[in-house]
Every structure is written in C-alpha cells, then in structure tokens.
Amino acid sequence: xxxxxxxxxxxxxxxxxxxxxxxxxxxxxELFTFLGPSGCGKTTTLRLIAGFEYxxxxxxxxxxxDATYMKPYQRGTxxxxxNYALWPHMTVFDNIAYxxxxxxxxxxxxxxxxxxxxxxxxxxxxxxxxxxxxxxxQQQRVALARALVVEPKxxxxxxxxxxxxxxxxxxxxxxxxxxxxxxxxxxxxxxxDQEEALTISDRIAVLNKGxxxxxxxxxxxxxxxxxxxxxxxxxxxxxxxGTVVETSGTKVKVDVGFAELxxxxxxxxxxxxxxxxxVGVVLRPEHFTRLPGENEFNELQLKVIFTxxxxxxxxxxxxxxxxxxxIYYPPTIILHPGDIFKVYIPxxxxxxxxx
Amino acid sequence: MEITDVPxxxxxRIIVLVTSxxxxxxxxxxxxxxxxxxxxxxxxxxxxxxxxxxSYKEMSSSEIYQYYTNSMIFxxxxxxxxxxxxxxxxxxxxxxxxxAYASLTYAAGNFVxxxxxxxxxxxxxxxxxxxxxxxxRRLQLRKPPLLKRIDPLMISFTLLPLTIMTIFLLIPVxxxxxxxxxxxxxxxxxxxxxxxxxxxxxxxxxxxxxxxFVVDNVGGVPVLYLGGAxxxxxxxxxxxxLIVATTVTLTATLFGLILxxxxxxxxFPGKTIMRVxxxxxxxxxxxANGIALKALLSSEGFLSxxxxxxxxxxxxxxxxxxxxxxxxxxxxxxxxxxxLNSYSSFLNIDPNLEEQAENxxxxxxxxxxxxxxxxxxxxxAAGSILVFIFSxxxxxxxxxxxxxxxxxxxxxxxLINEATQGRVLPEIxxxxxxxxxxxxxxxxxxxxxxxxxxxxxxxxGGRWKPRSRKLSPIGTVFAYIILLSILMIAxxxxxxxxxxxxxxxxxxxxxxxxxxxxxxxxNILESPxxxxxxxxxxxxASLALLLMLAISIPAAYAVSRGRARLLxxxxxxVTLPIAIPGLVVAVGLFYFYSSWPFRGTPFDPTSINVYxxxxxxxxxxxxxxxxxxxxxxxxxxxxxxxxxxxxxxxLGASRAKVITSIVIPLIxxxxxxxxxxGFIYSxxxxxxxxxxxxxxxxxxPLTWYMKQMVISGTQAVYNVAALGTLLIIIQLVAVMIIVLxxxxxxxxxxx
Lengths: 355, 751
Ligand SMILES: Nc1ncnc2c1ncn2[C@@H]1O[C@H](COP(=O)(O)OP(=O)(O)O)[C@@H](O)[C@H]1O
Ligand SMILES: [Mg+2]
What we know:
The structure holds two protein chains of two kinds. By secondary structure, chain A is of the alpha+beta class. Chain A has helices spanning 42-50, 92-102, 107-120, 136-148, 166-183, 194-200, 218-223, 228-233, and strands at residues 4-13, 16-26, 31-35, 57-62, 65-66, 77-80, 154-158, 186-191, 203-208, 211-216, 238-248, 251-255, 260-264, 278-283, 297-309, 314-320, 323-329, 340-346, 351-354. Chain A is elongated. Chain B contains 32 helices and five strands. In chain B, the strands form two sheets. In chain B, strands 1-2-4 form a three-stranded mixed sheet. In chain B, α10 packs across α20 and α27 (642-650) packs antiparallel against α28 (655-666). Classes of the chains: A alpha+beta, B mainly alpha. Adenosine-5'-diphosphate binds at residues 13, 16, 18, 36, 38-44 of chain A.
C-alpha cells in the first residue's frame, strides 16, 4: 500500500492545459475519487500517475519515492481501463495470469492466485472463456481481477462503470468498495458521475479545467462546497446573489433582495467576504424544511408555481418576489400551484461564497 | 460546400476564360511572347482566385481535393502549353491551343489557391506551435528530460526502416536526379537531357507518325488495324506515354466505377457468383496477359474471326498494334484497381449522409451526383491515379506489343543495352526522372489519401451496413449486361491464358476445342530448365518477405503509436514506393550498386564475376512492395486499441514484451495478409526482374524468363501461358486464404 503525492503537476497537449498545477495527497489505503466534467483532465492525471505520460512540470511521489519519470512497469500500479482492455486473444485465465507470469511466479501459485481473485470478483469457473463470451459486467470483473491479482500498491480505475447499465453500475460500485476495503488497497477512482463518487469514496477531488476545485470527504464537498463550481456541479442548488450587510466570524448576513439571509462562509474567505461585498448564496433544495429546527434558521414565504411528485419527495418550483427557487418538500402534504407556503433553512446550510 | 455556391463564381470563371483565350490568340498572331503569356496566365488565375477566396471562408475536404486535381491539370496544361505553343500552330491547332491556354489559366488559379491553402494550413499549424511555446514559457514548463522520454525500442523501430528505405530507395532515386543533370560531353548545358526529353523529335513529335486506324486487305479479308499498320501510330515517346496513361486511366476508372457502383449498391440474384467473377481479372499475370490478348484480337485471332467471319458483327477483323495494343491490355489489367478503390469508397460512405440527402428530397442521379460521388471521390481518384502511375511504368505491355516508343520501353531497352557496357547514359536518367516526376505528381495528389494513417481510417469501413437496393427484374437484366460486358473485357487476359495453356487456343489462331492437352502445363513443372526460374522467383520472394516484415512491422508500429515528427517522414517513405516506377528503381539501383560502397560486391551489376541477382532482387522486391504489407499491418494496429498495450505495460511488461505477447498475436491476421500480398507482388514483379535480374541467366527470376519467351517467338507462347496459369494458381491459393481465412476480401490490391 502506498501514499501518493502530486506536487504542482502540469500537463499540456499542444496549447491545451489538460492538468493545471495540481497538488494533492492521497492517503494510504483510501479510496480517492477524481470527479469532474468530461475533459477536465481526470484521465490525464491518472495516466500521469500510471506513467503512460510524463508531466511537463511537477513531481509525483509514491510513498516518498520520486516516481515522476519511472516507466509504467516499474511503478507497481494496476489500472482498470474504461474499455476494460481485455486481450481478446487470451482466455480469462490467461488475461488474469499475465501479470503473474511476468513476475515469474511458479505455475501452481499462479493457479491458486487466479482462483482466489476470481472468487473475490465472483467469477468462479469462467477461467476458460474468452472476453468476447462474457457480458459487460463480467468483463468489468475480469479487468478488475487482472489488476488486483498482482497485488498492486496502487489501484487506478478510469470510469470503470461507465459502460454498464444503471442497475449493474450500482451493484458493481458496491462490489468495488467491498473489495477495496477488504484488501485495503490505495485506490484512485475516476468518474464523472457524482452519485457514484459520493457513495464510493473516502475522499473526493472535484476537478475542473485541469484544476482541483476542492478535495475532501463526500460530506464536505457536497455540503460545504468551496466555490461556485463545486456548489453547482454537485447536486442541484439555488444560487442567489446578494450584498453582505453584516458579518460575525464566519457568519454572514446577506441581502438577497427578497430577504436578508444569515449564512456561513468558509474561514478562507473571511478576508474576501466583508460588508458591502457582492456574494453568492447557495441553497440546496433538500436543505429546506417544512418546520423550523432547533438550530438557527432563515424563514421564507413562497408561492407555488408548479410541483412534480417524485415518490420520496415533492419537487416544488416556487416564487419569492421575482426569484424562482427549487425546494424539496415532504411528499405527504400536497401543494398546488398558487399555494402560499413557508419553509425554513438552517443557517449552517446557507452557504455564502465569494463570486 | 460546393464551389459553385459562391455568388458570381460563374461570371469570374467566364471572364477569366475569355480573357485568357484572347491573350492566347494575341500570342498566336505574334503580338505576345510565350513568357508573357505564361505570366499573364498565372496572374489572371491568381486574380480570379483572390476574388473567389475573398468571398468564402471554410473549405471542405472535397474542395481541397478539387484543388489537388486542378493543380494536376495545371501541370498537364503547362506541359501542353510548352509543347503546343512553340509549334507553328495552324488551323484547328490554334483553337486547341487557345483552349489549352484557357484551361491553363483556370488551373493556374487553382494552383495558386492550392498553394494558399497549404500556406494557410502551415500558418495555422505554426500558430498552434507558437501558442504552445508561449504557454510553456508562461507556465515555466520544461519538456521531460530527453533521456526519460527516449524509448530505445521505439527509436530503433523508427530508425531501422528509415535507414533501409533511405539507402535502398531514396539514395538510388536521388542519384538518378543527379545524373539527369549531367551535360553531354563538351557541353555545359545541365538541362540538355531534360530539354531533350521534353522537346526532342523522338520524344515529342509535332504531328503524329502514321495513322491510328488503317483498314487493309490481308489475303482477301478486310482487317482493321488499330494503332497503325506497317508504321505504328506515334506522337513521340513522351506524348505517347501520356496519351496511353491518360486514356487507360479514364477508361479503367469509368469501368471500375460502374462495376463498383452496381456491386456496392444493388442486390440482385446471383450477386455472390458475380462477387467471385470480379476476382478473375485481378490475377496478375505479366506477359501472359498480353500473349492472350494478342491471340484473341489479332488478324488471325479468335475473337476477330468470330466477330467478323462467323457472327458478321464487324465489317473487318481487328488487329491490335503498338500503342492500341498497350492501351487495351492496360485497361484490362488495371480496371480491377479502379474497381477495388471505388468499391471500398462506396462501402465506406456513411449511409446516414445519403439518407439525410434523400430526406431533403434528393433522388436518383441527383443524389448520386451531389452526395454519393463527391463522398466517394477521394477513393475513386486515388484508384485512378494509381492506374495512371501503373500505366506509365508498365513494361510487359510494350514488350508484348513490341512498342518501343514509350518512356518505359526506352528506359528498359537502353538500360539493358548500356548495362552490358558498364555505363548508363544520362539520357536514361533524364527519361527516368521525367517518368518519376509524373508518377510523383500523382502521388502528391493521393498522398493524403494513401498515408498509412488515412488508410486505417478508411479501412474501418463496414462499421455500418452499406446501403443497397434490390433491383427490379428489368434492372437486373441491365445490371447483368453491364457487369458481364465489363467483366468479359477485363478477364480476357486470364481466360485467354488458361485456354492457351491447355491447347484450346492457338497463338494468333483459332479456337481449337478438340485439342485439350495438359502437356504445356506439365512441361513447365517438369522441365528442369524452367524450374530454375520458378525456384529463383520463389526463393527471392520468400527472402523479400522477411525484409518486408523487418521494415513494415517496426514502421507501422512506430507510425501508429509514436509521436515524433520524424514519423511523418517514415510514413511517407513506406508508402512512397507505390509511386516510384519500377524502372526508376532499376536505373537508380544500377547507378547506386555500380559505385561505392557496393562496387565489386555481389550487388554490382557491372562486376559480372561476383554479381548475384539474388541480393539485388530480394532487396528490390522487399523495398518496392513494402507498402502493401505496411498498410496491412498498420490497419491491424489501428484496430487494436492502445489501451490493450498500456494494460500490459501497467502490469509490468516492457515494450518489447508487449509487442511479442500482445501486439503480434493481435495483428497476426493482418501480418499474414501482408505476407500473401507481398508474395504475390514479388513473384509478379517485372521492372527490376527483367533488367537487373536478367544479367546472369541462371539467376534470373520467372518474369525474366517469361519476357525472354515472349520476344523469342510463337512456340514459346505456350510456356508463357502455362507460367501465367501457374501464377494464377499461386495467387488463387493466396486469395482463398485471405478471403476464406480472414474474411478480408477488400484488402486485395486495393489502396
Ligand atoms: N493525447 C492527447 N492529445 C491531445 N489532447 C489531449 C490528449 N489527451 C487528452 N487531451 C485533452 O486534454 C483535456 C483533458 O482530457 P482528459 O484527461 O481525457 O479528460 P477527462 O478524462 O476528464 O474527460 C481534454 O481537453 C482533452 O481534449
Ligand atoms: Mg476520461
């Protein structure tokens, strides 16, 4: 197992900056996710770590060893490719045993280890099939087994589930999480699917345009977004602009036109968020409650425009002054267009960010 | 997308054409010098295109293609102008000249535009590079250390083929170019021989010699001589070559296009059988094909007699002579090349594009002319340019029809005459260089198309189900009439060869169905005399295959996986041999091998004692036929995703291990296809085989022996035919393996 440290990594293609001065630390044994929109540099970063490309600037450390320019085959990483990259001319057994054979492991041990890893990914008895004779989910498992069997120090997964259908995706991600925890292997997981990222990860790095926007636990990046990009990329959110009227520590009072809201900002913005500054206020639809809670809260009165019933909740589009907000309301009390209703949002969930 | 979308386009065009015709007429009346005329032509053209370019922005690929072809027209009309203008043009020639001049003007404009396109392209490229440099400076980036980036295996994969191709292809060709500028003794005019080829009366005749059509009575039977009777029709070596190549290209392309369209786009009963029949003309049987054609279409030939005497369809018997014979033969031989290229382009058109056009109301001929043809045009054009190059360099046709007034024959005959004296005159080098020039002009046009990279894109065809329509019964009848007539014409050589072999047809005589014999065929297999040549050819071809493998696998791998700038050169170098006429290679190798460092080695054709044709032919076959294998291998690599290799590297395999355990097994089929193609092309190679290959008789290959038999007289014809049949059998086996084994029917000879 290994700790990974990226120090100011930059990679350019022509005049495109694919990875922009990225600094990150991935802890020993954790499942770390790169999350971001397509083209934000996730794959490139992963390939830099695997050694298929070299950075134009910066250093990569595996534990404390400088691995920036090591050959791929010297790094002890194992990658699962988006398209699985199973070798079509080899059976499942040969695919999985390939890395072991390279390591000159005795035949009997290879057999034993392949058998064990097939059990781990629940593919017992498939040894002699060819990749084309397997379903997408099974191929995915073989790819995972092929990476795991060499007992890598670092497991790299590039959108491993994106080619599977929705149901299988959920199953497989639980499976990956289970196996990862069982083996305790440091894992970097790349995805553009936020739900996947939030459910599977120990920590997430949200990337955009080659830059780390925020790194933290799923709870942190979701509930305490560091900037507007993270706030809007993850989940759904109402963003309203306003002017700061009062500050007290990280607590900030913002005039957003239709009301004066109390919210919190991050320590790092204490300088930037002063009286009179223009700020954005992020209100997630699920943070609104029908009744006031115990903590401090803001109170809003709105008029329903329309509602959509979504089973476990009611999605309500409502108007306050000229501003439209999206609110998730309990499904038990049906609202109708034109209804006037009240909602409450805790101050700690009212996120104030500099624009 | 179409140029004609530009407003006032037609007006510009007419103005330019009319003005330039007026200019020419002024020149004709003596008011203007040639140089003035040429300069004003270019000026007008440039003006015209400046006007045009200023009225639109984006260029589509079909437009770019148009500029390519137009620059070709430009070259040709320049040539035409050079030839025609100094002549004392009279009467109809004056009008022709004006037309030629007008088209020259028009094409000159296109050429200017083409240059401007290249310029724009370069500018864009440099701008990106500059932006990258600035970015690097701004972000203070450094390229990773050189030593870390270097992959020794990739470097040797680049350098090995690069070196071989440079030594055995580029250097010999360069020597030709150098020697073409050697002035004759006592003169210092470096351009002497080049001018000679462009203006000497041997090369360019003001008026044709003899008549093309001659009707004569031979023993009471009227015979139509095509290509002249006692005096063969002749406009000079250079013009003849161009006339033949142009006629053959246009006709073969038309035939191939029609065949391809029907086969690609229509469903009709019996199509499977037709699929097999279209393979018949594809067998490559140098010399035998000409012998067969002669046996059918001469004054005593079977078809002539049948059509005139029995069916009374023709008022005379037909006899092919000289240039006409060469043209007929080449049309038959090269139609398959045009067919295969057109066929694969039709199959590769995304059906959605056509369906969309249909949705918008385009139908029938309109759909074909506005959507289908433009989309297929690059492929069709590539095929026809290949035909042009192959026609220019063809030797077997001129030898069989004893037509000396062609560039290829001239170079050949003087090379073998002067080679025995140990020195080859610069005039041959000049002629070879001109031949090369024409071929390279063609190559430049298809360059973007036949590049390994492009090829792989094209070969991805079959991703979609190609569009095809069921034919009505009447349509089916028409389709069959067209298909069968073209196929019958194109398979005359193969069918004739087989008939000759088994005694069913006599040379210059009648069909004799009663005298079936396998004697001739058995004879060539058993005669120790002939066996030597068969064995030589098989040996040389097999060794050449090793060389081809050693060049193509590294080259294709490096080109498909590497990123170095040098690789563009390598990519060009391994496709280039397609465009270099075999005779040019032969002449170049003669110069090259007879000087340092090969002087006195078995390579040296002037050191008769130690000379060994094996060395020369193995290398020549290997280098000349490498494009076919390289393309095949490259296509395979293109279809295997890079991540398959990265996965192996990631698990601990070095690049060498990745290549042996992953890459080679995955592209094995493509390698085998390449081997079969390389083998077919090596065993049927003519140019180097009958020149440098024939220096020592006992070392000569099969094609040299066939040539000897052709020029030695009538009886030997059976041997040539029987050897042709042997070649057919060899190729049949190879094609069966490709088609049945690998399901790669379209890979065959197609580019
Ligand atoms: N080999 C390459 N050549 C040129 N540009 C590339 C290459 N690989 C990636 N890029 C560019 O780098 C950026 C990041 O790509 P990538 O890392 O693949 O994004 P992601 O995996 O997040 O979708 C994109 O703009 C992409 O176009
Ligand atoms: Mg990606």
